[in-house]
């Protein structure tokens, strides 16, 4: 028996040795950081001069569709010499390398932590770096935004609303936090709300419209605004003829995007109550669903006077971007 256990022990050692040789996975620590906060790794002299000014101009620019100026991203500068350990685990990082390097912009994922997106911008001179930032700003913003949406969606999944009825009726799946509640379910129109405090709310609307409702061309945004105004006037009217409408004096912005691998229009703007002093920002997505000959409409809006609203709109955006059409 003693000989048997000796042989068995040796076999286990060999098996462990083989496993260690084959297991080449690099285990990265978890990333950290507040949502929508970029860690900018740059020497102090670079951060305080023209390059830093250009970075702030691009990434702290006011976000579209808000009533007051709020930056697209918050930023914190980390000197290059202390970018190590905990500081290197930030979820989104912009690293500036100035010196004897070619002008370049690289996007790297999971470099020091997981999940993480690191953008490295290099050049020999300030002019080289600024040119790289200007040329690639849309690509960099998109990479950072996708990382932050993914992180927000991960947090949302920790506690989800039971919305199977809505999902089945609209033919979708979507992740909505459990703190929201379904306020209205009528004729495939769903109105979902989250109370903040002192009558402040975050709200979502989901519905579908025939494919021909929205034309492609110069009138696309006007079609979406008209559609939204009709829905809010008929589906969530207030007392004494009060209703929500897109504010004419604040021209909404429209962008093309992708949701669930399908083309979509994104419209950001301001809403107001006709006949009452209430207003706030909204974000509307019209998702092209050719198979079902429709546009799936997902709309989020906020009523939170005196509060900053960027992070509220970002939450609604992250919820909507979790949609998958069955």
Structure notes:
The chain is of the alpha+beta class and 326 residues long. The protein folds into 2 domains: 120 residues, 2-Layer Sandwich (Chitobiase, domain 2), CATH 3.30.379; 162 residues, Protein Transport Mog1p, Chain A (3-Layer(aba) Sandwich). It contains 7 helices and 15 strands. Strands 7, 8, 9, 10, 11, 12, 13 and 14 form an 8-stranded antiparallel beta sheet that branches. The protein has a 5-stranded mixed beta sheet with strand order 2-1-3-5-4. Strand 8 and strand 9 form a beta hairpin. Helix 3 runs parallel beside helix 4 and helix 4 crosses helix 7. The N terminus is likely disordered.
Question: Can you tag this structure with a few keywords?
Answer:
Chitobiase, domain 2; five-stranded mixed β-sheet; Protein Transport Mog1p, Chain A; 15 strands; eight-stranded antiparallel β-sheet; elongated; 326 residues; 2 domains; 7 helices
What is the CATH homology-level superfamily of the largest domain? Mog1/PsbP, alpha/beta/alpha sandwich
Strand content: 25-35%
How would you sum up the global shape? elongated
Largest sheet: 8 strands, antiparallel
Helix proportion: 25-40%
Q: How many distinct beta strands?
A: 15
Number of domains: 2
Could you tell me the mean pLDDT? 92
- What is the top-level CATH class of the largest domain? Alpha Beta
Determine the CATH topology of the largest domain: Protein Transport Mog1p, Chain A
CATH-derived architecture of the largest domain: 3-Layer(aba) Sandwich
Q: Gap between N and C termini, in Å?
A: 61 Å
Derived from helix and strand composition plus strand pairing, the structural class reads alpha+beta
How many helices? The count is: 7
Unreliable parts: 1-24
> SSE order in H/E notation?
HEHHEEEEHHEEEEHEEEEEHE
What Rg is obtained from the alpha carbons, in whole angstroms? Answer: 25 Å
């Amino acid at each position: 028996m003693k000989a048997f256990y000796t042989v068995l022990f040796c076999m286990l050692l060999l098996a462990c040795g083989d496993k260690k040789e084959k297991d080449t996975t690099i285990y990265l620590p978890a990333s950290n950081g507040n949502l929508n906060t970029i860690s900018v790794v740059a020497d102090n002299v670079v951060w305080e001069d023209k390059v830093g000014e250009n970075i702030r101009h691009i990434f702290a620019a006011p976000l579209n569709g808000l009533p007051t100026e709020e930056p697209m991203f918050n930023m914190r500068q980390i000197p290059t010499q202390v970018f190590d350990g905990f500081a290197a685990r930030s979820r989104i990082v912009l690293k500036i390398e100035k010196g004897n390097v070619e002008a370049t912009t690289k996007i790297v994922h999971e470099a020091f932590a997981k999940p993480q997106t690191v953008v490295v911008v290099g050049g020999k001179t300030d002019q080289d770096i600024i040119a790289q930032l200007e040329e690639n700003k849309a690509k960099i913003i998109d990479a950072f935004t996708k990382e932050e949406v993914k992180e927000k969606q991960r947090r949302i999944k920790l506690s989800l609303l039971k919305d199977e009825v809505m999902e089945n009726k609209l033919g979708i799946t979507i992740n909505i936090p459990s703190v929201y509640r379904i306020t209205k379910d009528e004729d495939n129109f769903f109105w979902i709300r989250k109370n903040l405090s002192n009558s402040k709310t975050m709200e979502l609307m989901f519905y579908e419209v025939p494919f021909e409702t929205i034309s492609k061309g110069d009138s696309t945004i006007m079609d979406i605004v008209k559609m939204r105004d009709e829905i809010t006037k008929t589906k969530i009217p207030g007392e004494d003829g009060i209703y929500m409408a897109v504010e004419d004096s604040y021209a909404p912005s429209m962008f093309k995007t992708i949701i669930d691998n399908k083309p979509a229009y994104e419209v950001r703007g301001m809403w107001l109550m006709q006949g009452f002093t209430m207003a706030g920002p909204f974000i509307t997505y019209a998702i092209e669903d050719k198979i079902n000959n429709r546009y799936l409409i997902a709309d989020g809006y906020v009523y939170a006077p005196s509060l900053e609203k960027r992070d509220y709109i970002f939450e609604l955006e992250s919820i909507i971007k979790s949609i998958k059409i069955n």
